[in-house]
């Protein structure tokens, strides 16, 4: 026996379980808001930029070969910046009480495609500490790269600064709440259809016709207390009328 589900039945299922969908969505959004505002630690971000360029010479014209060489060196520089040789000196200067691995996890190094600019990004719960790590890392790398590779082609393009009212980059409460609402809706709708699928009780004559494939000959209406009292009142009224008619006769 094949079963087909119409679009109308789907909407009826959603309408019947709307309270469940709204409840789950509200709970998910509330939990996300509480966690985002009161549980998660705000993380601030600071950036500094390094320019990789050949040492100035008497030649003032543009040399594309030198630019390509600098771009190829950037991949090597990205690794050196996060190496223990640099981060150990950063820790010695700042005295943060953190290991090299911890600093490594806070620092992200990247550069745009075919760009000679290296961007050092640092995330930390304290915006001032984040800026200090970024600037110190850039300064230490600029000094140490001369000893490591015997090349003096790195200059600091911009330093990390802390604004008057810095804003954390994460968590993002509004984004988290929006994601929680979407997830809550998905869970609520899925649970509504699951409950409807598991519910095999017969609630109407249409359900009887679909399951038994037999026509419905009659329907017994639901009798509640109000219907009984109303029927009794009508019955007593008719009896009194008949008695009156008898006495009159």
Automatic annotation (TrEMBL):
Signal peptide: none annotated. Its main location: membrane. It comes from the Bacteria. Keywords: Cell membrane, Membrane, Transmembrane, Transmembrane helix. The chain crosses the membrane at residues 20-40, 174-195. Belongs to the CpsC/CapA family. It is a multi-pass membrane protein. It comes from Priestia iocasae. This is Capsular polysaccharide biosynthesis protein. Residues 3-93 form the Polysaccharide chain length determinant N-terminal domain. The lineage of its organism: Bacteria, Bacillati, Bacillota, Bacilli, Bacillales. It is found in: Cell membrane. InterPro entries: Bact_polysacc_biosynth/exp, GNVR, LPS_length_determ_N. Residues 142-195 form the Tyrosine-protein kinase G-rich domain.
